[in-house]
Here is the input.
Amino acid sequence: MRIALITIVSGRHAHLRRQLDWVSALDPQPHAHVVVSMGDPEIADLVAGHGNGRGVVVSMEPARELPLAAARNAGVATASGLGADAVVLLDVDCLPERGLLGDYERALVEIGSETAVISGRVKYLPEGMGEHDYTPQRVVELGRDHDARVIPQGAALVEADPRMLWSLNIAATVETWNRVGGFDESYVGYGGEDTDFGQRLAAAGGSMWWSGLACAYHQHHPTVTPPVQHAASIARNANIFRGKWGFDPMEGWLQHMLGSGHLTREGGQWRAATDPR
Here is the structure.
């Protein structure tokens, strides 16, 4: 099976450098590592200077808001054009365990021709790590699982609610991707596009599966929860989602931001409190 890695990025150069190092240690190696630069002119030189030889850069024009959905689609289209028959989407924050691609290949073979997305394990690394801590042995000690994720034992796969789909570490065949239609590019900026992809998967008769293998380690970075700095795009994308599927995504965030005054809601439509009328 020819499996390509897809990473979308803007900024986060230190995270990408570490990821490139860890990708070089993968066994087996990816068919290609497609790095999609969302308007960041430094990415091409960074990947070319690494010397792995698997990196292929796709450059998108700068935009006011990050085109996350379109970037993932561009990455998969490029991988498919290079001959990949399966893809792994791996966020730039994530460091892949050495056996990640082998784990995914075995899971995809088990699933067979079913329309399916497999969500690998993600362990979150703490703040304050030094460069000497980014070793395979040390991240195993420091990484912690997310409370909301199901962790099957051994090589078992457990069927999941597609509303839990989060694309930081997932795999699918290119055939599944094409059946689903990829990500909806009307989502721009932060929020909603992953949940929409899960609904598109379900609508195509597909399913999502948790795996306790195919592990990646999420590098720490400052976050705001809920991400109120993205209130405008969250409101816009939530309206797109509800118009398509009849319910709200990101419900916890939306309700919290409504209560804090960052969002308003009128006539069923979400709006950032600072948006012009």
